[in-house]
C-alpha cells in the first residue's frame, strides 16, 4: 500500500451531522460511548418552548456543517464548524472579554450587515479557515468583490493546545471548504466535533453545543437559536439548572492539568431586528454563560455574534416592547447549548497523552435527583 496522504493520517474525519469517512489504515473505527443531550436526560432549562430540533438550525435560513480532525492519541485534535446564514443579514457582535479573535468583523461593524458565513476553529487556524471560506464564497459567486457590499466571512477561535498541536497549524483551507459544503439544516452534531473537537469546559470535555427557543410576540412566533464553542470555566464553578454540580464531582480532572478560558457564540433569529437591537441581544449570551457558573476571566476570549435572517430590506423592525422575550430566549438557549456541549462530548486523549474526561452522566443524574430537579 502506498504511503498515506495527509488526510489519511487523520484518524477520524467527520462531516455535517456526523457522517464518518474512515481512512484506509487497516484499523477499525473507535467505539464512542453513548452520550445524550440535556433534555434526553430529563433536565429542562428555562420556561420557553424549543424549536423542532432545539438547535440554531430551527431558525429558517441557517445551516451548520462540521469538519472534524482527530489523530487518535496524536497531535491533531481540532476541526472547523461552519454556520451558513442567508445573507446579507443585519448583524452585530459583542465582546464580553477580548482575549480572543473574530476575524472579519470590520466590515460588519461598519455596515451592520453580515455578508458571509461564520466559522469556528482553534486559535492558530484562523488564517487558513478564512482563506478557505473566501475560496468557497468565490466559487459560488466569481463576481463577489464587484458588489457595493464588502463580503467577508467571520472566523472565531478558542485555544485547543492542551489536546491539539496549535503550532503545527494542521487545519487547511480545504477543511473549511469541506465544513461549508457539509452545511445543512436539521439536527446538529454536538460535543467533540468541528471547531469544538479540542475544547473543554469546567474541567470536562466539551466543544460544540446548540439550543433554540420560540418567542411569542403579539400575533407572531419567532425563533432564536444559539450555537456555542465552549472552552472555559473551572470545575467548582459548574452549575446545571442552578445545581452546584461541579462541587460534587471532584475526580476525573484533566490529566496533566492545563487551562481553558474562552467561548464563542453565534445567535440567530428570524425576528426582524436592527443592528443596534442585535447588539443588545448578543449581550444576553453573557447571562446564559453566567448561569452555568462562568465569570469570564481576565484571559478569556468570550465573543458573541448575533444576526437576523429577516430581510434587511424590511422597514418594520420588532418593537422594543417585545425584545425582552428575545432576551429570555437567548439566555435560556445559551445556557442549554453550553450544557449540551458537556453532556454530548466524550472522553478524549490528545497530544502527549493529555486526557480530558467526559462529564459522567450517571453521576450528573444522581446529583440532579438529589436536588429535586428530576423525578
CATH class descriptor name: Alpha Beta
Separate helix tally: 8
Beta-strand segment tally: 17
The neighbouring-strand order within the major sheet is: 2-1-3-4-8-9-6
Would you write up a description of this structure?
The protein has a single domain (37-370), classed as 4-Layer Sandwich (L-amino peptidase D-ALA esterase/amidase). A hairpin with a 2-residue loop joins strand 12 (208-217) and strand 13 (220-231). The protein is globular, with a radius of gyration of 20 Å. It has helices spanning 105-111, 126-140, 173-181, 245-248, 275-283, 285-291, 323-344, 361-370, and strands at 12-15, 19-20, 62-70, 77-85, 89-98, 102-103, 113-114, 118-122, 154-158, 200-201, 204-205, 208-217, 220-231, 262-269, 301-308, 348-349, 355-356. The longest helix has 22 residues, at 323-344. Residues 1-29 have low confidence and may be disordered. Strands 2-1-3-4-8-9-6 form a seven-stranded mixed β-sheet. A six-stranded mixed β-sheet has the order 7-5-15-14-13-12. Strands 10-11 form a two-stranded antiparallel ribbon. The protein is 22% helix and 25% strand.
